[in-house]
Amino acid sequence: MRHKVLRKISFLLSICLLLAACGREPGPNGTAATGAETAGTEQTSTPEPQTDWQEKRLPTAGAVKDALLYVNDNISVEYREPGETVAHTCLQLAWGNDFYVLDSYRQQDTVSASLQKINGDTGAGEQVSLSTGVWEIEGGLIQGMDVVNDDRLVFWVSGRSAQDDQEIRSYAVYTDCRGQIQNKVELTDILRENGIREGLAYAVLFLGSDSQGNVYIDDVDGQTVYMLDAEGKLAGSYAYPSENGAGSQSFRTSDGKRILVCGVPGEWEWVQLDPDTGEANRHSLQGIKNVQRWYAMWGNMLYYAADHQLVSWDTDTGERKLLARLDEVAGYADALEMAVMPAGNGLRLLLTKTDEARRYILTLSQDRPAAEGEIQVANLYGESSFFSERVLSFGRENPSFGIQYQAAFQEAEADRVLLEVANGGGPDLLYLPRQNVKALQANGALGELGQLLSQDTLDVLLPGAVQAGTYEGGLYAVPLSVYVRTLLTARAYWQEDGWTTRDILSLLAEQDDIEGLFVDISGQDEYAYNLYFLMGMDIPNSPFIKDGVSSFDCPEFREILKTVKDMTQKAENNSTLYDRTAPLVSGGYLGVECMVWDMKIFSETCEKLGDNANLVGYPSDAGGSHFLVDKGMLVVNQNAMEKEGVKELVNYLLSLESQQLLSQSISVRADIPSAQVAYNEAGKTYYWKSTNNTGYQLPAKADGTSYLEEYVELLGKAVPMAFDSEEVFNLVMEDADSYFHSDKDLDTVVDAIQKRVQIYLDERQ
After folding, report:
1. Among 214, 218, 364, 652, which residue has the fewest nearby CB atoms (within 10 Å)?
2. Which pTM was predicted?
3. CA distances from 185 to 159, 175, 180 (A)
4. Are residues 445 and 558 in the same domain?
5. 23-50: string of b/e by CB count within 10 Å (b at 16+)?
6. Burial letters for 597-620: b for 16+ Cβ neighbours within 10 Å, e otherwise?
7. 507 and 460, same structural domain?
8. Is residue 514 within 8 Å of 589, Cβ to Cβ?
9. Domain count of the chain?
10. Which range of residues forms the domain containing residue 407?
11. Phi, psi for 565 (deg, rounded to 5)
12. String of b and e for 316-332 (b: at least 16 CB within 10 Å)?
């Protein structure tokens, strides 16, 4: 038993070391890269050195001047993650005209690694599976790698001792460019002899190699960098000052040297350990601060990232240039992990968006790309990181379509844009409140969005989403995401899938144990919400308006008002922020309101009541009882229907790949739930898959199955909210409130409501 436990502990520690080594900044800088000589020369092979920085005094870095490069191309690289990947780290390097990527995947109980060599010109990749078993390393985990030269790679590998599972051993494995082993050197003893992080989980931080095959490791605890030669012998070391226990960083030069960056921020120095003598050649840096990542140095040009900006530094003249803002060209936090190589009069960047499981090469150039057109996009709905990010992501992936994005949230800004569109101008694509769509469509200002969407997309849109944007038989608007409003009751009270107001009134007359009506999503038991839930959600389809005639002066409406007055705030409300179902589960309420933002909320709500849960919906005499609430509507300007790139953009926003990135929202694609729900065989649990770290575990039913079928059924039945119902309800509530607080009698209130609603209807005839 003890032996098994120790094996498990050793395995978990090894995983931690793998993730730490692959994910930490210096390992090796995410991009221990060498490549072309300068940013102005196209390269196809490993360059010869042009200058030796050791023989000159490094100049003081000058002020950073804007020299922003343009995105000229975006090449997708074939990339697939293994199924059920829990965590993924990647180490990206540039060498000559190729990129190398070491991918490490943690699945349920295993860790796998693969190597991909990618042609910088074409993006064509060659995938090589790596197996430490082939290298005869027990329990081996690849923690880092580097390119030694055109024909040789080196991997830093940890493994377990055959005699003691708790003992971790370290190796440098040299292979050809396809991962075929050439030499394996165990470094465990040399590390121990130098007291490097000795103990149960001792390990070192692998910085990379140089062109002679020397490997560089950082003992962060000891604040010392060691150089070990290709035979595993100690060739040199350097102790460096550190602030807050931070380790060193490093990069490669185009002639194959490994340069260490040591010291505290703002007082760094460059250090090169001489492979022959082990001596440290040191140069202080002046004027460079806030560096997040050192990439590589070609000739006299060094590339690094500071404040999420890509900067070049001419180490001959001291001139520095701002080449790119990473949030603009890449748009995600992991962009610092990219690999960089010069190309033509610009750069190539290899990026992996782990949140989208996508890998691609961006080409940055001094030349402005030939634009196929400019697409103007306006957001009038409100702050939406999903919408803005997906629009800008489309622009990054399609640089020939110049995307101009504007946020017009303020009322004055929104009114100006709406007026421009109504008068035949304005942006090409708009994201706006649903209330604005009808007027623009009636004015002829909107194009028929359904004509731009692919048939595959049209076929999977939720019925309620299509209904929300359909006018005069055409699909003019589509929400990008929604949520569902509904009511939950207990099957002990009501067994049917739907009910009417009359059903509820009859039920209340029969069930003496029901003390209260409903509790809203905020946990409140109020007159307004009880009346709203009983008759206000869809007044145009209720018995109280018939053919444009107000019909509130009737026995049923009077009974509703009396019931709301008699049963509001009469039961014990035990709703809490953490359990909104409590008034139904253990209280005396008929039902509680539910806001379904995602399948997690849906499944947890159903789980609390089990078979007794009945998402019956709001009472309805016609139409639906579950309401789909949009979070903004996508529309196209009539004048942009034929514009280059508009069709591609709207399909991109509604594509499966884009919609899978939604969090705390429901996609309008009906195929998303089936694509995202998976089963963890090891843990015997269901979970919602996600590439952007927003996934979650899902509760299961008593029989072991998921709530997927019920969830999909709910989404398919939900209908759009009726906005014209709210205006009528507000009129009703203004007078009803005086009855609830006993300021006026029932007859007076009903008479007033009857007349006010009729006037409202007449004005809109």
Report:
1. 652
2. 0.71
3. 13, 12, 15
4. no
5. bbbbbbbbbbbbbbbbbeeebeebbeee
6. bbbbbbbebbbbbeeebbbbbbbb
7. no
8. yes
9. 3
10. 373-480+631-670
11. -65, -40
12. eeebbbbbbebeebbbb
Q: Which residue type is seen at 602?
A: F
Tokens at residue 661, please?
């990135």
Is residue 313 domain-resident? yes
> Residue 571 in 3-state DSSP?
coil
- Residue 486, classed as helix, strand or coil, is strand
Q: What is the 3-state secondary structure (H, E, C) of 281-321?
A: EEEECCCCCCEEEEEEEECCEEEEEECCEEEEEECCCCCEE
Do 535 and 428 belong to one domain? no
Please report whether residue 9 resides in a domain.
yes
Q: How high is the pLDDT of residue 401?
A: 86
Tracing tokens 């943690």 back to the chain, one arrives at 106
Report phi then psi at 413, rounded to 5.
-65, -45
Q: Using DSSP bridges, classify how beta strands 168-175 and 181-186 pair: parallel, antiparallel or unpaired.
A: antiparallel
Measure the CA–CA gap between 285 and 57, rounded to whole angstroms.
10
Looking at residue 329, its pLDDT comes to 82
Using DSSP, state whether 50 is helix, strand or coil.
coil
| Same structural domain, 305 and 334 | yes
pLDDT, residue 357, reads 77
- Tell me phi and psi for residue 654, to 5 degrees: -105, 10
Position of tokens 């109980």? 109
Angle between helix 646-653 and 385-397 (nearest 10) = 130
Residue length, the chain?
A: 765
Q: Alpha-carbon distance 713 to 464, whole Å?
A: 12
Q: How far apart are CA 634 and CA 137, in angstroms?
A: 55
Place of tokens 């809109």: 764
> Chunked in runs of 10, what are the mean pLDDT values of the chain (765 residues)?
38 38 34 32 37 62 91 88 72 92 80 89 88 80 92 91 76 91 91 67 77 92 90 92 74 93 80 91 85 92 93 94 87 81 93 82 88 87 86 86 90 95 96 95 96 97 97 97 95 92 94 93 94 91 90 96 96 88 87 94 90 91 84 96 96 93 92 92 84 79 92 95 86 96 96 96 87
